[in-house]
Fold this sequence. Notes:
By secondary structure, this protein is mainly alpha-helical. Helix content is 67%, strand content 4%. The strands form two sheets. A five-stranded parallel beta sheet has the order 2-3-4-1-5, sandwiched between helices. Strands 6-8-7 form a three-stranded antiparallel beta sheet.
Amino acid sequence: MTxxxxxxRVRESAALDEAYRAARDGSPSxxxxxxxxxxxxxxxxxxxxxxxxxxxxxxLVGGCLELGTEGLPxxxxxxxxxxxxxxxxxxxxxxxxxxxAGAELGRLLPDFGDADADAFTGEARARLFELVLTLLERxxxxxxVVLVVEDAHWADTSxxxxxxFLVRNLGAGAALLVLxxxxxxxxxxxHPLRPLLSELERVERVRRVEVARLGRDEVGELVRGIxxxxxxxxxxxxxxxxxxxxxxxxxxLLGSRDDPELPESLRDLLLGAVHRLPEETQEILRVAAxxxxxxxxxxxxxxxxxxxxxxxxxxxxxxxxxxxxxxGDGYAFRHALIREAVHDDLLPGExxxxxxRYAEVLEARPELMPARQRMITLAHHWHAAHDAxxxxxxxxxxxxxxxxxxxxxxxxxxxxxxLDLWDRVPDAAExxxxxxxxxxxxxxxxxxxxGEPDIGIRLxxxxxxxxxxxxAHADPMRTARLYERRGxxxxRLGRDExxxxxREAARLAPADPPSRTRARVLATLAYQIHALPGMxxxxxxxxxxxxxxxxxxxxxxxxxHLDLWFAWDDLVRDGGVEAFLARVExxxxxxxxxxxxxxxxxxxxxxxxxxxxxxxxxxxTEVAALGAAKADEYGLARTTGTFLAFNTAxxxxxxxxxxxxxxxxxxxxxxxxxxxxxxxLNFLAGGIAADRGDLDAAERAARAAxxxxxxxxxxRAQDLFPVCRLDALIALGRGxxxxxxxxxxxxxxxxGLPDESRYVLPGLVVAATAxxxxxxxxxxxAVxxxxxxxxxxxxxxxxxxxxxxxxxxxxxxxxxxxxxxxxVKAWDALARPYPLAxxxxxxxxxxxxxxRDGAAARLRRAAAIAGDLGAVPLRERVExxxxxARVDLGGAPSPRPGLGLTPREAEVLRLVAxxxxxxxxxxxxFISAKTASVHVSNILxxxxxxxxxxxxxxxxxLRLFD
Length: 962
């Protein structure tokens, strides 16, 4: 029983309409529409879609499918594309695409033909994502487009990746709205959609809308719409009390009012409505429930095994009662909960027989379903039917199809199922046409591509065990590839044994004749060990041989990789930054031309890293952010993407854009990156927490980082020394300078690590501070000796050196104003506010006795910087110095007590209170709209409110700006 009236939803409808108007006017937007099962999301979206169509828009709808635990890769986009083809035809879609690009859409819909079967790469995935975005943008050039992705709680990994790409790349001017629905009650703590929603919500022009239950008056309106005059106030009150405002529950209760006893659960209510239908209709519904939320008419007829007349006779009551709705050439359950209830009500034997029947029909009649969907659906049905042999064969075919679609996580799931079933099927190799060794090697590759290093290492270890026990599997090339892959994944997890794996791969790959495999394993070895202690010569020899082999076999991507390696090696030897950047720029261009995504990402990584090292932090941020976006496109968000997120956050911190950096770090951590990258992100976040005075948060971050970085043979200065420095900062913050020196032990004693000067000098500054706080210059001799052996590269390291010299003198009881002014000048030239403010405070302290005006100017500037950053300990130190020197800090007031807002946040709040948008705020304060969005999010959290309106009301109530 369904209400003919659309009841309530004023707030939710207004939010959708507002987003639609913005998109129609050229400001593309996205809405994340959540709500519990049965709350009315589908009805709300349907009513909104009708309004959009009436306004001349094109509405494309696709839903994620629950298919066991697999999900169907890209299902909503395939469905939306199929709907578009029905409207304008295949040729009409091709006309909207770049010349010759239509075949790539064959990965989503077979109507467009077969895409390049060999292009199972990150580049192919990026091209597919770009093509979908291009299609939507060109469609939107003619009329506004609304893309609806329903039931995202069932989305597979690849669907989530494409959805993220589209939302994050909404281009200004496109009249495009992306509307995604999901069930909030499905999102358990580890559900993969949870971090995605948090990430997308931070994107500008993305709005999250929760669909609430109906209120008492709205339920009364719904009751009267269904029952008419019989819908008395008493009936409405009873229905509201029992349904608690859930529309589906309320409608089911109204449909069962004649039953002598009211069921207690929603499931019983839904089944009660089904049980009131004729038996032949119930049987057809049971068959339909086995096919998923939607089923084509022909497939339903074939599985039901009845003639057309009997099928129609059985279907009519189901459609008339709104249990099923007609959907194109098939049928869909009005609500997924109804299908779930009917399917769960089947007896175990009935359920097994039903899945067998579906599988048999799809095997016999392949024309009933597109090939890729059919393969994945067959894998589901044979697995649910507990037929191991058929399930294994179907899963192998599905692994191949999902790999073609560039859906690596789903392909890994299917390949893993094949391995799980292997021992239960005696003739497994004959059934799928490949030996167990090939299956496990494919699974290892898929695990690496899918960003699942733990799974990949476990699979690779099993594969290598086979090579030792079975001579038939002992192909040296294959074994070398397995060792290389396992070593790479182990390096991402910071494991010492990774080095042995990479060396073994190089030893096993035959040198004669030259081969791509040998070139690649040698290049991998060179790249992974060059930054490890005592291994530079070994890395150099491996790189030279790899380059020779790559040239001999024509492996262009490896050649580009090695050009980048030698550029880095030359930089370390002679410090020529400009020459390095020019070589990297050339390599990036070659990688773009060769469509080689791995060396391209490597080039962007190296370029951003060196720009930051050279003090060009703003450029470094832009390059790293570009690389992270490309990594997302290539399906490498969890691995290379999160590494580039580190390279984005680090220069943001240098520039004093700490809140933006934290937002980048949070997004990267939500991707569940490999352990080593997670540890690096942890120590960046911990550094900000320590500088802001939140020592508990800093300690948690330091503890997490220590667990994840290598301390043995695979240790690197860039991982180990920053964590030691963070531990020391925490100890100083807690007033324990001796513990701070102890924490810096590895920085003082572990010598000869490549690139150490970049990470040793910041630690030595902290060591000098610890000596000063101890009041004992004794330990300083060892600290100075360590500094004397460091070669300084570039202006950033020179600024650290100058700061160290000034701080070491302070530890010896000498406050040298000239030394501190030299440090101030160095940091000022680099536009790095936090170390600048530290140096200004020390310079003021050193000059207070003979240059009071100069000291006052330095203190005021330091106070303003510390306040803007939210660096509470530094601000308090500056205020203490100002009181001692009787300096009025004047224009740099402390944040208002109780609110904890930085001066910048106070400025943003004032503009929010004036009703300004993020774009208006950005223009007024000369910051980016995204930065404005981050400030607003921080303000909401600090004020304990959830909307801009509430924040503005709080500001007015407290008279903050009167």
